[in-house]
Design brief:
Layout lengths: L1 H5 L5 E5 L7 H18 L2 E5 L3 H7 L2 E6 L2 E7 H6 L4 H8 L4 H4 L42 E3 L12 E3 L8
Bound molecules: iron/sulfur cluster (SF4).
The site of iron/sulfur cluster has 14 residues, from loops.
């Protein structure tokens, strides 16, 4: 499938969960193959995945989506180092880590369930699951804040849609 999709030298390859249901050895081989071929052909890749490990190893830029919208975006390394949106923070905390497992600490999880995307509210859709939710979060959808633009500690172009960082409440 990858050979077929790259045979016409596309400028962009959209790979939707290309390694799901594969064991980790084959997964690593497929990802190496994709990296090598796309680098040689100069193809940009949009990789859609639930695996943060795959993202960390493959992507330059990361968009975190919740309820069908991008809620955080930034350079992958910067975003892993300083996740700003509570959903991204929850996702990263819920990845099992050997050093934490050795301490006997329970694995963190995000409580609740995702919303029904057919009937989304006008407010922040993460509101019922967010530990940092405020009154404004259930009234209005949060604007996107660019942290780099404000000269903060996060890389330029790093944005998040969250009322925690907006002064326009
Ligand atoms: S806008 Fe409010 S509810 Fe939504 S993620 Fe930010 S703090 Fe949580």
């Amino acid at each position: 499938m990858i050979a077929m999709s790259l045979s016409c030298n596309p400028e962009i390859l959209i790979a939707d969960e290309p390694t799901s249901a594969l064991d980790v050895t084959i997964q690593a081989q497929i990802l190496d193959l994709m990296k090598d071929l796309t680098a040689r052909l100069g193809t940009a890749v949009i990789l859609i995945t639930h695996s943060l490990g795959v993202v960390a190893g493959m992507c330059d830029t990361l968009c975190v989506m919740y309820a069908g919208r991008v809620v955080e975006r930034g350079a992958t390394e910067a975003l892993f180092a300083a996740p700003m949106h509570p959903y991204t923070q929850g996702l990263i905390k819920s990845v099992p880590r050997l050093d934490v497992a050795a301490t006997g600490e329970r694995l963190s999880s995000i409580r609740g369930q995702p919303p029904n995307v057919i009937d989304l509210p006008d407010c922040c859709p993460f509101y019922p699951r967010c530990d940092k939710a405020m009154e404004v979060c259930r009234r209005k959808y949060p604007p996107s804040v660019d942290f780099g633009a404000s000269g903060g500690p996060v890389a330029k172009g790093h944005t998040a849609s969250c009322w925690l960082y907006s002064e326009a409440k």
